[in-house]
Design a protein that fits this description.
The protein has 17 helices and 12 strands. It has helices spanning 3-36, 63-68, 70-79, 94-97, 115-133, 154-161, 175-180, 200-210, 226-238, 264-278, 291-301, 314-321, 333-340, 354-357, 374-377, 394-397, 401-413, and strands spanning 54-58, 84-89, 105-108, 141-144, 165-169, 190-192, 247-251, 281-284, 305-307, 326-330, 345-349, 363-367. It has a 6-stranded parallel beta sheet with strand order 3-2-1-4-5-6, with helices on one face.
Length: 426
């Protein structure tokens, strides 16, 4: 098959997918209007006097996204101090946000399933969830703060909630979103159209500005309770960690993408050299399904290593990270948790956009920007590489242990500093 023929077939598949999604949305909108009387309600105006007593936020995103979302929640509560705020999230991140002081309740929407299953079942699942958990609450406002593609049908949840006003980013903000979310704008009463690159925190805060709020404070937060802190203290004491001892946290996983994972053998060599240079102990952090990676790395590093991969909740992980001298990891959820825990972080970036996903506070980046990466290849139209054109991701394999160790040493010796997220872009 020649290149032109392949391109034509790919284009045809995209058009068919876009048509199917558009039909799905059209049917949903028609049924909603016919049965429930949903229509185009009045647009939001920050200057109007209509009270906002209840707000629904639907944010079906991953761990790092939710950490970067924390300034939004704080700013929204400041803007609407008396409103009842309901936050809908994925089950996997509930533990991270359930102690948030800026929301009144946290609900979970089960978005799991493969791409075909999500396409076939999530619209119905979203309707049933909204009818069972949200209908009858008379939300004055529903917010969809995710800027790029809505993979998990958050717009359907907002639509079926019956919220009077439903605000989100338009399907037209990126070319890719206009394909995979074709027609989603019809489910909203008002859309924001802000194409172009910003840090994810800035995308979130742009919606706060639209709502008439103060969006200047971009500090990220992690919300812990006393049992989380006690867990960290007990764990370190039981494992023989001493007061004042250097502790390095390592998060070797790339999350959902192997293209974001610095080679495991590099982490093993880095860990050994950290132990030699500082006499340090090491804690390995990660989530469910990453236990085998932790076992392999811990066996390489010896008894001075505490392997907690897949053995803590997200908040327990954060409480332990707060005791670390420095954290080193890939662009993944634990790295964002570490940054929001206000410790020095060394983040290794490869196939994802450092401009959008820079962890922020006290973070030093190590990266190798290649022409095939998302920042150059697509001019930021896609936030990460989904496949690699080489047999290995050179953007990561070309980063040496010496290079990372040098940045770690800078983090150990440098005083803590706060880097405003506005300074993490170009």
């Amino acid at each position: 098959m020649n290149e032109n023929s392949l391109t034509e077939r790919i284009s045809l598949v995209k058009r068919l997918i876009s048509f199917a999604i558009g039909f799905q949305v059209g049917a949903t909108a028609m049924i909603g209007r016919a049965i429930c009387g949903y229509g185009t309600d009045p647009e939001f105006n920050s200057a109007d006097r209509m009270p906002i007593r209840s707000v629904l936020i639907v944010r079906l995103d991953e761990i790092g996204d939710m950490v970067m979302f924390s300034p939004f929640l704080r700013a929204l509560r400041k803007r609407l101090p008396e409103a009842h705020i309901t936050l809908v999230v994925k089950p996997g991140v509930r533990n991270l946000v359930e102690q948030c002081p800026y929301t009144n309740e946290v609900l979970t929407f089960d978005q799991r399933g493969g791409r075909i299953e999500r396409f076939l079942l999530l619209p119905l699942r979203a309707m049933l969830f909204a009818v069972r958990r949200l209908r009858g609450r008379t939300y004055d406002l529903a917010l969809l703060p995710r800027w790029d593609a809505d993979y998990y049908y958050a717009a359907f949840v907002a639509f079926w909630s019956g919220a009077v006003r439903r605000i989100g980013y338009s399907e037209t903000v990126t070319a890719y979103k206009s394909v995979v979310n074709r027609g989603f704008d019809r489910l909203l009463t008002q859309t924001l159209n802000e194409p172009g690159l910003r840090h994810d925190v800035e995308h979130n805060m742009a919606m706060i500005r639209f709502l008439g709020g103060d969006a200047d404070d971009d500090r990220q937060e992690i919300w812990l309770n006393e049992p989380d802190r006690q867990f960290a203290e007990n764990t370190l004491r039981e494992q023989g960690f001493e007061l004042g001892q250097k502790i390095f946290g390592i998060g070797p996983s790339g999350g959902h993408s192997v293209l974001k994972q610095w080679p495991l053998e590099n982490y093993a060599e880095l860990g050994r050299r950290l132990q030699e240079k500082w006499g340090a102990k090491i804690i390995l952090f990660g989530g469910p399904g990453e236990e085998e990676m932790g076992r392999i790395l811990a066996n390489n590093l010896g008894p001075e290593t505490l392997n907690l991969m897949g053995r803590t909740t997200l908040r327990q992980m954060a409480a332990l990270m707060a005791r670390c001298s420095v954290y080193i990891g890939n662009d993944s959820g634990p790295t964002h948790i570490a940054a929001a825990s206000h410790i020095p972080v060394v983040a290794i970036f490869g196939s994802s956009c450092r401009h959008r996903f820079h962890p922020g506070e006290n973070t030093r980046l190590v990266w190798r920007e290649l022409p095939c990466g998302p920042c150059q290849r697509t001019n930021h139209q896609d936030e990460r590489c989904h496949t690699c054109i080489f047999d290995q991701p050179h953007c990561l394999t070309e980063i040496s242990v010496d290079e990372v160790l040098r940045v770690v040493a800078e983090s150990v010796s440098a005083p803590a500093h706060r880097l405003p997220l506005a300074a993490t872009g170009f």
